[in-house]
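Wed. Picked up where I left off yesterday with NAD kinase. The coffee machine is broken again, so keeping this brief.
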Amino acid sequence: MPLKIAFAASAAPVAQTALAALVKRYGDAPQDSADVIVALGGDGFMLHTLHTTQELPAPVYGMNRGTIGFLMNEYAEDDLVERLEAAEQAEVNPLKMIATCGDGSEHHALAINEVSLLRAGPQAAKLRITVDGRLRLDALSCDGALVATPAGSTAYNYSAHGPILPIGADVLALTAVAAFRPRRWRGALLPKTAEVRFDVLEAERRPVMADADSRSVPDVRTVIIRSEPSIVHHILFDPGHGLEERLISEQFN
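Structure written out below (tokens, as returned):
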């Protein structure tokens, strides 16, 4: 049977042009009955597609029609079926964020790349960090902190001087953003099973927001982060250009 392909595209004109050309050539199956979903855009749209299709069995294959494309394959209109049939698959578990705000409301979100806490005012944030119920850092003064998955370790985590993690590593990166005290704290590598809790200290004077893959929650007081093994995202890459190879290559650029 011919491969059933569903297409999704960002609103960018270049992505919409590609969508029209590919649908005309390969058809466009409904996502819930497709063998594979092809996402056209940048990494932001790829993350959006992974989140919106996480309940569907079809893997997602990205083609870069955006500005950043670490999770994307090169765009080409020709030989798409052959590329999809030969593609390598990576499996990624997201992080789950549970954020409690100053008004007592609780917010849940999933993040494929990272969950970050960032100062929302002129003064540095002050965070208490607990891991698996054990206090690890009583006060971190910083612009923020984040917990990143291996898949997201080359994104904001890497910009904040966090480590790049191999895709198969059962670890998470806990990284400070512009740490002031302890000034030389370099972050930590934690087991994938760890539960990280951030408590915001002096929250009225030092407000903090939380962000999970661009879903932002203002005025957080506590944020709990843990891996969510019940959800598995299936991402396809061209042979020799898979996520593991990209993570290794990035370290030698």
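Quick read: Residues 159 and 188 are 16 Å apart (CA to CA).
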